[in-house]
């Protein structure tokens, strides 16, 4: 093993260690010493002990620098690893079964930006893990591989391609889950029909999930955060969505959902973040939204809502983010809202219909800005005038370039003809 260890393959190794004796002492004396791994050496509880030599060798085999005793910075005599995070590793780091077997005491294992090849975890490690995280790591995972981590309470997989027939195969056996993130994984299939009732956090955003939102999902009464954005979900939002009475964050943005905003949403008093943008939702925007006292983020843009916006300036200015643009039949009451707020929808006539065609998509260039409204008078006019400019310039440029290309081609042809 000649390679110089200085270009460290792992820039972060976070180790937290289990004091085996302390853990055993804390357990009720009657409870049988369960399947917890025995340290190979038996030292008296008082003598300072270092890391299990087998685990030390495992870390070394993973190129984790161990010249410094990972336990020495602590006054406690640590014995076994509980938690390991590998971050920013280069792709020549390889997991080995032997190393992972030695590390089976881990309850938490994280890979952050570690594009190495996954291997089948030894059964003991799979059973002990409570927290598993893979972000931009492990090249490619399968649903079957993930489904073996049955005792997880927290699963986070983000920016890793996961091939599976759907989330069901991954989640159905994990009976203790509290928190699930499977995001940016290109996961296909339908949402599961059965859920474990203790879920508090569910993020399945930015995948290729299709079909409807099952009613069973709305029975997760402990759920605080639900993000299903950027999938291909269709049909209507279940009428029972309001049964998620603890929910604080709800994002169903960028799907193909249709129909109205369900009335039951009024029964979600804790809601602070509501994003229903970029769907095909229709009907009017319900009045009860203005009574949601905790709301800070409201995005209803890019739908097919119609009618008069039921909000006054006090309500809108209280929000950190407010977007309603790109709803061509939606308008605002000028008597109530004046013309100061940039809402990107038209004012209403006296019948509650949009007065002028709403601002075209010209605003999309600076749509990323969170500031969807401000107090600048008549800025809309200036902006509109501006927006014609760039596209004309671009067009002019394009014509100019194509003329030059044409001219060059013409000259080449001419030169050839003249030979
Ligand atoms: C990993 O690298 C990124 C950027 O290269 C850096 O911002 C981050 O702090 C690193 N993470 C760790 C844990 O070293
Ligand atoms: C982990 O889950 C298995 C079933 O998959 C179970 O038999 C075992 O008791 C669990 N282990 C712990 C430590 O909870
Ligand atoms: C998902 O698929 C898209 C398009 O096929 C691809 O660009 C992207 O890298 C994939 N994401 C992952 C995490 O593999
Ligand atoms: C849900 O959590 C409660 C307490 O947090 C626990 O008693 C119960 O066993 C859990 N249920 C499941 C299915 O994990
Ligand atoms: C939902 O997920 C999307 C994409 O992954 C992300 O941009 C958005 O911030 C998330 N919403 C919330 C409320 O966290
Ligand atoms: C809600 O979403 C925001 C933004 O993504 C996040 O900071 C916050 O922690 C989320 N709340 C819960 C309860 O998950
Ligand atoms: C909303 O759209 C559905 C079809 O997606 C249609 O059946 C319904 O009549 C529409 N409702 C309104 C109020 O436009
Ligand atoms: C604005 O609407 C809120 C309800 O969202 C209401 O309580 C408040 O009195 C209204 N303010 C004005 C100035 O009309
Ligand atoms: C606009 O608001 C005023 C004052 O509240 C009201 O009299 C009028 O009917 C509203 N117009 C529409 C179209 O809703």
Describe this structure in words.
The longest helix is centred in the last third of the chain and has 39 residues, at 379-417. The chain has helices at 20-26, 53-61, 97-102, 123-128, 143-147, 167-171, 313-318, 334-337, 379-417; strands spanning 12-18, 80-87, 108-112, 131-135, 140-142, 154-158, 161-163, 179-183, 188-190, 201-203, 208-211, 225-227, 232-233, 249-251, 258-259, 273-275, 280-283, 297-299, 304-308, 321-323, 329-332, 346-347. Among the domains are: 1-27 and 41-80, no CATH class; 328-401, no CATH class. It is elongated and about 80 Å long. It is of the alpha/beta class and 419 residues long. β21 (329-332), α8 (334-337) and β22 (346-347) form a beta-alpha-beta unit. The model is unreliable at 1-48 and 361-419 (pLDDT under 50). It binds 2-acetamido-2-deoxy-beta-D-glucopyranose (NAG) (9 copies). It is a single-pass membrane protein. Pfam families: LRR_1 (PF00560), LRR_8 (PF13855).
**Tally of alpha and pi helices:** 9
Distance between the termini: 66 Å
* Assembly state: single chain
Helix content: 10-25%
How does the overall form come out from the CA principal axes?
Answer: elongated
- Biggest sheet record: 12 strands, mixed
Quick rundown:
Its main location: membrane. The chain is of the alpha/beta class and about 425 residues long.
Quickly list its features.
20% strand, Receptor-like protein 51, RLP_Defense, disordered C terminus, elongated, alpha/beta, 5-stranded parallel sheet, binds 2-acetamido-2-deoxy-beta-D-glucopyranose, transmembrane helix, single chain
